[in-house]
Structures are given as C-alpha cells and as structure tokens.
Amino acid sequence: MKCTCTAILLTLVTATTRADNIEALQSVGPAAAGAAAAREASAELINEGSKNLLPLLKAFKGSSVLATNWLRSTFEAIADAEIKAGRSLPKDELVAFVKSTQESPAARRLAYEWLLKRSPQLEDTLIPEMLLDPSPEFRRDAVTRLINKAKSLQGEAATATYRKAMTGAVHEDQVKTIAKALRSAGEEVDIQKHFGFLAAWKIIGPFDNKDMQGFPVEYPPEKSVDLDAEYDGQLGKVKWGEVETDNDFGMVDIARQIENYKGSVMYATTTFESDKEQSAEIRLGTPNAWKLWVNGELVFGREEYHRGTSMDQYRVPVKLQSGPNTILLKICQNEQDQDWAQRYQFQLRVCDNTGSAVN
Amino acid sequence: MRHLFILTLLCATTATMVTSSTTAGDWRQFRGNLANSVATGETVPTELSGGSVAWKVQLPGRGVSSPIAVGEQIYLTASSGYSQDRLHIISFDSSTGETQWERQFQATGRTGCHDKMCVATPTPASDGERVFAFYSSNDLICTDLAGNLLWYRGLGEEFPNASNSIGMASSLLVIDGTVIAQVESDAEAFAVGIDAETGETKWKIERPRKANWSSPTLLPGTNDEPTLALLQSSKGLTAVDPETGDTLWEFDNGASTISSSSVIDGTVFIPSHGLTTVKPTADGKSIEEGWNASNLSPSTSSPVVLDGMAFVVNSSGALSAGDAETGKRLWQLRLKGKFSGTPLASNGHLFFFNEEGKAFVVKPSKDKGEIVSELDLGETILSSPAAADDALYIRSDGHLWKFAKPF
User: Fold this and answer.
1) Helix, strand, coil % over all residues of chain A, rounded to 5
2) Which domain of life is it from (chain A) (predicted)?
3) Residue A186 CB partners (closer than 8 Å, separation 6+)
C-alpha cells in the first residue's frame, strides 16, 4: 500500500514538473523573455526522455510560433537521442496524433516527419487522407500524389483526378499545374474564386507622392470612405471610379488599367462579406508601398518600392466581422525611371491561415 | 539592369566574429575569424580534383550561407519547405561528413525571397561555445555546440517592417560576448547588439533606411584600442563600440550595399567608388583616408588582400589585382562565369567558385595571376568557401564538400 502511494505521488510530482516545464517553454516572449527558464525546462524535459514527446506535441496548440520553436527543439532533442540509442519512438501514439486534425498542424507535421525516419511506408497510408487537412504541408503532399496519379491517367479519369486535386490545392504552383491540365481538357477553372482574390474595386486618385512624401500623408479617403465625395487630387479633382480585373490571380494593374501616375498615391476600396465573425488573413502582393485598413482600422503599412512582388508577398492577420467588411488599400508609386520599376499594381485575397479562401 | 542588380546582391553574406578564445583551425564565420577571407596558417590543397574531395554530403534544404568550423564540427544552415519557412541548423563531423545533429525551426518573420536567394543566406557564426544562426526572416537562433536551444530572437516578428521582399543577406558579427546584427531595409533599418549568453538586447541603433545586404566586419583591437564593429551602408562605414553601440568614427563617402569591407593590418579596404582605403588614427577616434582606385571595383564578392595585393572580381568575372599600398592596378585575369561568393586566400593562393560551380585556384604574383587548378562541381554555387584544419569547404544549394590533401 505504501509503495502504491509513493508511486502515485511520484507520478503526480513528475506530471506537475512536466507541466511546469512545458509552461516555461510556452511562456517565452519577444526580446528573449523567459529564455533562461526555458533553457532549464528544456534540459529537464530532454533528460526525462521519450515520455515527454506527446505532451510536447500537444502543447503546440495555442502556443506562439516562438514558443513552438522551443517545444520543437526539445522534441527533436529527445527523438534524436532515442533513435541514436536504438530505441523506437512511440509509433502508435504518434500516428494517432498525426491523424488528429484538432491538434496543431505544425506539431502533427513534426511527428509525421520523425515517424518517416523509421517508417517511410506511412506516407502511403497517411497522406492520401489529407487532401483537405488544416496543414498546408500535408495538403501539398496529398495534392502532389493526385497530380502524379492524374498524369498517368487518360480522359475523364485524369480530369476527375485533377478536379479532386484542385479541392485541396492551396499553393500557386500546384493550382497553376492543375488549372492548365483542366483547361486543356475543356474544363472551366475559376482561380480567382479558388484563392479568394478580390476582383472588383472602387478606386480614387492620384494624390501627391512626389519625392515619396505622400506615404505618411492622411489624404481624405483615410479619414472616411465616402464613395460620393470629390477631392483635390494631384492633377485636379478626383472621384471614386470602378476597376475590375479578370486576371486569374486578381492583379489590379493601375498602370495599365488606369495610368502609371509617377509620384502618386491611389486608394482602392472594396467590401468583403464574411458569413461569420472569424480570424482570417489578408494576403497582398504589390511592388509598391502600401497601407491597409480593415473596417477603418489600420492593420499594416509598408514603405518599400520595387523590391519585387509575388503572390502572398505579405500576410496580414485580421479579424473579420460577420457581414460586410470594408477594406481600404493605399497604394503608392514613386518616380522610378528604370524600366523594371514601372509596375503600379496589387493583388489581394482573403483566406485562412492555410491559404484557403474564406467566405 | 534589374537582373544584374539581383545577381550582384546575392552574396553579400559576410559574417564576422572574434573572441579571445579562438582556436587555431577554427573558421567561425563567413570570411574567417577576422572576416577578411584570409586563412592564415592553413595549407589547403591547391590542386582541386576528384582525388582531393574528402567527402560530399547532401543537404536537407537550400542555402547560400557558408559553413563554419568549430573544433571537429562543421555547422551549416539551410532552409526548406514550399515557403522556405523551415530553418535548419546542421552539425557535421569534419572527419567523415556524418550528420551529428540537426535542428529545425519555424520562421517567425517573412520568408519571401528572390528565386535565386533563399532564407538561409546569412552565414552562421560561433564564439566557440555557441552557434548563432541568422536567416533572411530575421530569426536569430542560438544553440550550444550540441544543438540545445539557448535563446531565440524573432527579430522579424519584433520588427515586422524590417524586411526586404528580395531577401535579407547580412550576416552576424560576434565580438567579446555581443552578437551584432544589421537589419536594414527600405522600410525600417537598425543594428542591434545582443548578449551572446542571454539573447537580450544590449543596444539598438537606427541605421540609414535603405536596403542593405552587406555585412558588418571587424577592426581588430590593439593593445590600447578595443576591437570595433564596422557597419557598412550606402552612406559609408561606421565604427561602433560592440559593447555599447556608440559610434567611434565614420567614413561618410558612400559604400556598397552588397560587397563588404575587409581589414588587413589595420587598413580598411572599403567597396566605395571602386575601392577606397582608410586607416584609423592612433587615438582610434578618427580616420585617415588612403587611396581610391576606381578601376578596382568589386561587384558582389568582397575585396580580399593577400601578400600586399588587393583583389576584386567585377560583374563579368574579371579578377583585378591592385597594389595594396598604392591602389595601382597590377593586372587582370579573366575567370569564367559570374561570381557571387567571395574568394578565399590561403598559403599564397586564391580559391574561387563561380555561380556554375566551377572552381579556380589562382596563384597571384605582382606581375600576373595564374590559374593552377580548375574543377567543375556541376552545381550552382553562390556561397563562399571556408577553411579549417588544412581543408577547404564549399556548399552548393544541395551539397557540402570538403577538400583535403589525400593521405
């Protein structure tokens, strides 16, 4: 009886210590806050070995990326030591964790990659079920398998496989590959809708940005979006007009669709209907300087000109309200004379953190 | 023009570190312990061939960063994943090339880069006790030599506007317990001194707000004067106290934002209007300008000084040698291809790797430069070589090689 009580007590103490140590890893913050405590906690967790692997993975959920890096490195140190010692990782528990879509996508992926070191065949059983997984990495693997399969098929069988692949694709290169194959087969593909690009905008300008002085200037649209208003612009009176793009990737090309006003500022606004209150990402691509407001709140701004552009160049986390959400974008062109610095454009989409369009 | 600009900035990956505990045979940052690309005391093989390849290992991700050597370990960074947001630190056994440990982290800052660059562009550094890994995402990670995480700074998360859509390249400088990082972009620019032991910020100073891919270098101390950090930008070169961030002197005649300065025997060779030299005055608080040579104009590679000659490679792959005392151009030698990496100087030879993976060993004299060995590695190489324990190390996007004299 005494032995049983001691064992229970030791188990409780161990669990409490483990919880405290994991909390220390989760508590790290910017500027190396909590690093000293995390170092000690990590060392203890590593020293205790494989029994901490699952608890470390579970702790990913709700932790900051900074904290997950502490959890990740502690996990890897334990797993690495186990494998080097010739011991097996807890395969069944890890597989179950990988399958649990309620857990952190990053933690599930970490578990999966360590499982593959000893059990590469798991890829064939796990990945095909992950086409709509919350993890973009798992989705990508599942889509890759389908694309490869489709390439080996003919006719409707191939088309159907590509169609299926498209439902899970969240990366630009894969969507392009699939869309090309589907269109070649005579299928209609709405890439704009797939990615959640916003294509129809109201736009006003130009306002003055000579010598790049306009970025901090609060022109009237920043104070309130009044679509009936008329203002003094850089070249005279300006009013809101409409611009729409049919570009697959939602590119609104101000220089081509309107005019490449050198040293200018334009404002573009649109409304996004959200079917519920939710967290989302606004993803923006532009070679120009920009500021972004959602429902009147400035969420980010960046004064960089012509350092390249790409889809999803910027990822801005936002809170959407249920119903209409007003998006306002300030887009600034400098006075570059070089031929490679002429672009005056943007593409903007609303998606979740996997890159899937949200409604 | 733009293409040229991209090519030119790609290997502004210099890192420097100095500490009183430096071990002979170590190469603790890009361009060596003194950040001047000179491997003093090393006798690396001058005949590069298949027979001098000691080992070649596959890497788990991409990278432009260079390897560093501490004791019997070679450390290297890489980045992987569709968004290149997976950050790797790998430790290899220098004798066998076997992986001793590898850790992966999730980037906390932006990972977008020009296709030719990648997130693992800055070279890691070490103080002999720790490894400091830095990435284009501005993640600054410190582990011990066994891979245990000691501290983590998400500078990209702390300062989200200090990024560059082409990518960041500046490497670290470690001086007497301070890790110095230049994080300079069009939107936000600063330099920080981080406590090597705790990861806490010792100092942070504003820097010229302009994209900058050059790296800090160091001016070794003398008996009376401490070692200084030299921070380069489009405005010029600023010497700062590594402990406080206080400015000691400034060179304000402009400098490259790509290639970095080199210091040999107290003279600073600055990529400025070609090549310009300065020398600190005796009190260490100002500088005397030396010569300027507009016909010694480094492109992406940083200048290297060896045996009284200064060497630069231009954008078309022409190697120029100048007299290090006068700046007079001595000769030119056409090398094949374009060069992103900085050559390494050792034992009277220069070691070049071009972007196509062709290696050239050049023996320079005052009269001419002679190519004494060539080897085609067949892979894109944008990084710079390292040397340690009489061996030469170079990485491509996919592999790490060790060259050593056959036994």
Assistant:
1) 45, 20, 30
2) Bacteria
3) none
- B211: tokens are 């994209």
Joined together, the tokens standing for residue B295 give 């016909």
Q: Do A72 and B106 touch (CB under 8 A)?
A: yes
- Omega prior to B406 cis, within 30 of 0: no
Set of chain A residues whose Cβ sits within 8 Å of the Cβ of B200: 31-32
With beta carbons under 8 A apart, name residues in chain A contacting B108: 65-66, 69
Q: How far is A237 from chain B (nearest CA, A)?
A: 31
**What CATH superfamily classification does A195-351 receive?**
Galactose-binding domain-like (2.60.120.260)
What pairs with residue B178 in β-bridges? Answer: B175, B195
Q: Note the pLDDT tens digit of each residue in A12-41.
A: 566 679 999 999 999 999 999 999 999 999
> Does A77 contact B108 at a Cβ distance shorter than 8 Å?
no
Q: Which helix (H) or strand (E) holds A69?
A: helix A65-84
Contact B106 A137 (CB under 8 A): no
Burial A106-126 (b: 16+ CB within 10 A, else e): bbbbbbbebbeeebeebeeeb
Radius of gyration, CA atoms only, chain A: 26
All residues of chain A having their beta carbon less than 8 Å from the beta carbon of residue B202 are none
Token duo for residue B57: 């290992």
What are the distances in angstroms from CA B102 to CA A61, A87, A110, B98, B145?
24, 18, 13, 11, 11
CB contact under 8 A, B150 and A72: no
Using CA atoms of B254, B258, B264, B268 in order, give the dihedral in degrees to the nearest 10.
10
Sign of CA dihedral B221, B226, B227, B233: negative
Indicate the range of A44-53, B2-11, B149-158, B173-182 predicted with least confidence.
B2-11
Mean pLDDT of the residues in chain A: 95
pLDDT digits (tens, 9 = 90+) for B337-377: 999 999 999 999 999 999 999 999 999 999 999 999 999 99
Strand, coil or helix: A76: helix
Exposed (0-12), middle (13-18) or buried (19+): which is A226, by Cβ within 10 Å? Answer: exposed
Interface of A with B (CB under 8 A): 28, 30-32, 35-36, 38-39, 42-43, 46, 65-66, 68-70, 72-74, 76-77, 80, 106, 136-137, 140, 171, 287, 300, 302-305, 307-310, 313-314, 338-341
Minimum-distance CB partner of A68 among B101, B106, B148:
B106
Q: How many CB atoms lie within 10 A of CB B253?
A: 15
pTM, to two decimals: 0.93
pLDDT at A73 over 60: yes
Confidence grade of residue A4 (pLDDT, cut at 50, 70, 90): low
Map residue A320 onto helix, strand or coil: strand
Query: By CA distance, what is B166's nearest residue in A?
Result: A307
The pLDDT assigned to A341 comes to 73
pLDDT of residue A100: 98
Grouping H, G, I as helix, E, B as strand and the rest as coil, residue A92 is helix
Cα–Cα distances (Å) from B52 to A350, B343, B404, in that order, read 54, 19, 5
CA distance A87 to B129: 30
Separation between Cα atoms, residue A1 and residue A23, nearest integer Å: 33
What are the structure tokens assigned to B219, written together? 């001016």
Segments making up each domain of chain A, as ranges: 9-129, 136-143+152-189, 195-351
Q: Is the pLDDT of residue A1 over 60?
A: no
Contact indicator for A111, A57 with CB cutoff of 8 Å: yes
Q: How many Å from the N-terminal Cα to the C-terminal Cα in chain B? A: 48
List chain A residues with CB under 8 Å of B103.
Answer: 73, 76-77
Q: Which of A31, A136, A341 is nearest residue B158 as measured by Cβ atoms? A: A31
